[in-house]
Design brief:
The protein is mainly β and 698 residues long. The protein has a single domain, classed as TonB-dependent receptor, beta-barrel domain (Maltoporin, Chain A), CATH 2.40.170. Helix content is 7%, strand content 56%. The protein contains seven helices and 40 strands. The strands form seven sheets. It has a 23-stranded antiparallel β-sheet that branches. The longest helix has 12 residues.
């Protein structure tokens, strides 16, 4: 259903025009944002004319107030209530994020069923949905306000450089299973969309400071100011400095971690039916990085982005145009000791992504909605070793998609989405070896689809059937021409192809009134063909004394089946609680990779927790148990990869907070309370951490 609100409903929801004294601060910040590529906003503005219609941007706060539940437009492009979504989509609200006591987005996601979180360092983590991931890479697409932060060059997400302050996140949308037709390529495992607060609709400013064990000190600063009904701005800063876990020194990694991220969002309305947004972010990090062959290197990446977006509610539909440019510049420096040799690594790369998308969401009648979209992407990757340029590669992608939402009956809805991606990778030569042969060019045209049938049987519950085909592209680095990086030779593979995942799912949910709870159940089975690993975890051969040959490959077929059951509710005295169980059984019949995909995912996990407010105090705690799985670790003595068993473990977090004033909050959070040190991966042992925090709203 379309969600529309009248002027009277807006007043009932408490929507007011507020101003706060930060004018000079935002003028200074705006100058920094407009120094680069102001043209991007101009490109956005020329696409729109003035037409009739209704509110064109999604006011999450007002809709949530009106309907008493979260709202999202991520599934079909039109606003939908959480209760109308398939049960394989879970929305984590801002209240749940804060009450969890989590210090990062990976910490929040750890308490979501079928989300596998591996913490390799204070900032470094690998997150997958329903498994099938290699240790260092991911098949899970990550977005912030719809802009991709997932790094296609090496197929992973740098969680330490998220341009979002934790307490400024309005909600996190977790979509399980292949969703390439809705979100684009590289969403074959699932999608995590992080939605921050919109300064035009929600005015919230605060400062948060925390510190505690392991030399941890960090904070967030968000200043949001609505200058008028036509213009608002938000400045967000977040940073962290902490000691790495104690066994970092024995592994030769950085003993201390740093991260600093900043973002500026400018929002405005040209007319009541046309609004725009211009956003810029920058982030810097120094941290140990777990390479997917099973060892650490030290990294110091710099991340930058600029995005322009415009929405217009016109007579031919809700038109949205957005364009963004992401830049990621990283250097890796280390010395690997093996075979009585010290091998220096001085590897650097720059990844730039330019993306433009145009969509139109059309209400054909009261039973049919149609969303049409086109997308163009250009990405280039420049790599160098010891200051010498090794390769400069790029790819181009064009895609078209359509989403059709059809209400067959008031209680029966069919949603179909289809997308076709056309990828071109040209022939390339290793610039460090002028007479080297050219690599083969690649041309792919891959369709993806999602089809969902939802039936609301009222008191009996809601039933759903999902069928999907997802696409995972090889990392851009995998297309590189044959080249040498120190002792390693990386070979070009002309036969490399995208992997495809076919998924079938059954969903059921219902409200259990006697205990004021909601129950949901999802079952799935999927098959991934031409499985892809990650760039540095490919099968390799070792030629003594120290020559390693790496060749990116497809690894045949991998099957996965399982499901999630979740029960959440609230008691008569205000105690919020939840309990979930997830099972995922992976089968790797071909076993073509050194990495054991069949054992990479925990088969069972159980999550439970509660949050409770009593007067000025808040109490909360969450625990997760997961069964054993296998991680990989490098054996440098003979340059091989070993699959290491990680026994099952329990993660326990807790938080207590005190509102000693209307605008001030004191909190104490504990991470990993079940064990002083925990073997969670083949990397560093995760340690218990206690943090005190002070939050002030203004």
């Amino acid at each position: 259903m379309d969600l529309e609100i009248t002027h009277e409903q807006k007043q009932a929801a408490g929507m007011r025009n507020e101003t706060q004294p930060f004018t000079r601060l935002f003028k200074a910040a705006a100058v920094l944002l407009f120094r680069r590529r102001v043209l991007l906003s101009g490109v956005c503005l020329f696409t729109v004319g003035t037409q009739t219609g209704h509110a064109q941007s999604l006011d999450y706060s007002a809709f949530e107030t009106l309907f008493g539940e979260p709202v999202t437009s991520s599934v079909t492009g039109k606003p939908q209530r959480a209760s109308d979504l398939p049960t394989d989509i879970q929305i984590i609200t801002s209240d749940q994020i804060v009450s969890s006591g989590a210090q990062s987005v990976p910490d929040v996601l750890r308490m979501v069923a079928e989300v596998d979180v591996r913490s390799y360092s204070t900032l470094g983590a690998n997150i997958s949905i329903r498994g099938n991931d290699a240790a260092g890479g991911s098949h899970t697409l990550v977005l912030v306000d719809g802009r991709q932060v997932y790094l296609d060059g090496y197929n992973y997400t740098d969680w330490g450089l998220l341009p979002a302050s934790l307490r400024d996140i309005r909600q996190i949308e977790v979509v399980r299973g292949p969703n390439s037709a809705l979100y684009g390529f590289n969403a074959s495992g699932g999608v995590i969309n992080i939605v921050t607060r919109d300064a035009l609709h929600e005015n919230k400013s605060y400062i948060h400071l925390n510190g505690g064990s392991l030399g941890n000190f960090g904070g967030e600063f968000v200043a949001s100011h609505k200058f008028s009904d036509q213009f608002a701005a938000k400045l967000s800063l977040n940073g962290l400095e902490a000691d790495e876990y104690t066994d970092a020194r024995s592994r030769g990694t950085l003993p201390r971690t740093h991260a600093l991220n900043a973002s500026l969002d400018l929002r405005g309305q040209i007319t009541p039916k046309i609004d725009w947004q211009l956003s810029g972010t920058i982030g810097k990090e120094t941290s140990p990085f777990w390479v997917d062959v099973g060892t650490y290197v030290d990294i110091a990446p710099l991340s930058k982005s600029l995005e322009g977006k415009i929405n217009a509610d016109t007579s031919w539909g809700l038109v949205e145009f957005k364009a963004y440019e992401n830049g990621f510049d990283s250097s890796v420096s280390d010395v690997i000791s093996t075979q009585n040799l010290n091998i220096p690594i001085a590897f650097g790369y720059k990844l730039n992504t330019t993306d433009a998308q145009l969509s139109d969401t059309i209400t054909l009648n009261n039973r049919n909605d149609l969303r049409l979209s086109v997308e163009y992407r250009y990405m280039d990757l420049t790599a160098q070793q010891s200051g010498v340029k090794m390769s400069n590669e790029y790819d181009m992608l064009a895609a078209g998609s359509a989403v059709w939402d059809y209400r067959i009956l008031p209680q029966l809805t069919l949603t179909n989405a289809v997308r076709v991606d056309a990828l071109y990778v040209p022939r390339m030569r290793n610039s460090g070896v002028p007479d080297a042969s050219l690599s083969d060019s690649h041309h792919y045209m891959e369709p993806s689809f999602n089809s969902r049938l939802r039936y609301d049987a009222k008191k009996v519950g809601v039933f759903g059937l999902n069928v999907a085909r997802g696409i995972q592209l090889p990392a851009l680095f995998d297309f590189a021409p044959t080249q040498n990086f120190g002792p390693a030779a990386v070979l070009n593979n002309p036969a490399l192809v995208p992997s495809t995942t076919i998924n079938v799912g059954l969903n059921y949910s219902r409200k259990i009134n006697p205990i004021n709870a909601n129950f949901s159940l999802s079952l799935f089975a999927q098959r991934t063909s031409n499985m892809l690993g990650t760039p540095f975890a490919s099968n390799f051969s070792y030629d003594p004394p120290f020559t390693v040959t790496v060749r990116p490959e497809n690894y045949g077929r991998v099957d996965d089946a399982g499901g999630e059951a979740r029960l959440e509710g609230i008691t008569t005295f205000g105690l919020n609680w939840d309990l979930s169980y997830a099972m995922s059984a992976v089968r790797d019949p071909d076993k073509a990779s050194t990495i054991n995909f069949q054992r990479q995912t925990p088969v069972n996990s159980v999550i439970g927790g509660f949050s409770y407010k009593i007067g000025k105090f808040e109490l909360s705690s969450h625990a997760r148990w997961q069964s054993h799985y296998q991680d990989v670790v490098a054996r440098l003595t003979d340059l091989s990869i070993e699959n290491m068993k990680i026994p099952g473990f329990v993660t326990l977090n807790a938080r207590v907070a005190w509102h000693f004033d209307k605008r001030f909050l004191l909190s104490l959070s504990g991470d990993q309370l079940a064990d002083p040190e925990l073997r969670e991966t083949a990397g560093l042992r995760i340690q218990r951490r206690l943090l005190g925090g002070l939050t002030a709203q203004f």
